[in-house]
Amino acid sequence: QTAAAPVDPNSFLNQFEATFGKFEGYRRSGAKGVCAMGEFVGTAEARGLSTASAFSGAPVPVVVRFSVGGANPKAPDNAKSQRNLALQFNLPNGEVWQMGNISAPVFGASSPQQFLGRLASLQPDPATKMPDAAKVKAFADANPEVLLQGRHFASQPVPASFGTVNYWGVHAFGFTNASGSKQFGKWVFEPVGGLQGLTDDEAKAKGPAFLFDDLRQRVKDGKVAFNFNLELAQAGDQIDSATVPLPAGRTKVNLGMLKVTSVAEDGGGPCLTITYNPMVLPKGVEPSADPMIAARAAPYAVGLGRRLTEGAKQQ
Ligand code: HEM
Prior knowledge:
It is an enzyme of class 1 (oxidoreductase). It comes from Caenimonas sedimenti. Pfam families: Catalase. Its cofactor is heme. The chain is α+β, with helices and mostly antiparallel strands. It has a single domain (9-310), classed as Catalase HpII,  Chain A, domain 1, CATH 2.40.180.10. It has helices at residues 9-20, 44-49, 112-121, 133-142, 148-155, 200-206, 211-220, 291-310; strands spanning 32-42, 60-68, 83-90, 96-102, 158-159, 167-176, 182-191, 197-198, 225-232, 252-263, 285-287. The strands form two sheets. A nine-stranded antiparallel sheet has the order 4-3-2-1-10-9-7-6-11. Strand 3 (83-90) and strand 4 (96-102) form a beta hairpin. The longest helix has 20 residues, at 291-310. The structure holds protoporphyrin IX containing FE. Protoporphyrin IX containing FE binds next to strand 2, strand 3, strand 4, helix 3 and helix 8.
């Protein structure tokens, strides 16, 4: 099998459960989360890059989900771990744009086979209930890019809020405008109010469950908004890998602003029974050749099927 060969979606779901545990009803990744509603307004610069109706300049409702990385619905909020921002833009005429963004500029694997191998290498040994250090090391030595995402989190403070950290799309997408010209780029959602992290002492004092209440307070104060920015790829840039960011200093275009307007009650809301499939794109935006984009579609659908069957839960 080549590195880019497809992986059966049930194999992915089974491996997630074997490695991280099975928490019935919860998303197998990003289990601890909360639904919110937002509004997006696109810019003239975005309209210059893409005909997508999301950029018309009229406000677009967005079904938002913030989550903490991992399969554990009790994952601590005060760890140097992943935060996620998943978005569904509800566009005119029933068109939909879905995406799931993470608080690192890179993902932990560049191909579905490599991701499955990494998850398998982390599977706890039945005797010790711990991953086998030699297996973990052997896989990482042979696939060094799987360590880049974790290194990013280790280098950053614990985010003070879901609303004060950057969320990257990590894949390149193509944007096509009215004259038919196509521009590839990688996007990042950057908090309008700037980044804010916690010192180690502050993180300890906050405890394991502060992010949802913090989000509610900041949204009430009108303080949670993100600039949707696109870094433009240049000829020769590698755009088919979720483990390779664009070179530093690429031109960044502001595509618009997402403002979070309300937060659902714990455990419910409009994001609970949907999945965020990055292949669900509006006309005017298309996937790059990054094999990880298409590889996400079926596992997300199967994951949704499993948790709906079990009784969908979150938090
Ligand atoms: C083949 C590769 C991947 C597999 C098999 C996979 C698997 C999954 C699964 C099963 C879920 C839960 C879906 C649900 O129940 O609705 C999920 C959620 C998520 N994944 Fe992935 N994933 C992959 C790649 C990625 C990549 C490259 C990113 C980087 C942006 C990413 C970001 C997310 C986010 C943000 C969520 C939470 C979305 C939400 O709140 O619903 N995943 N993933």
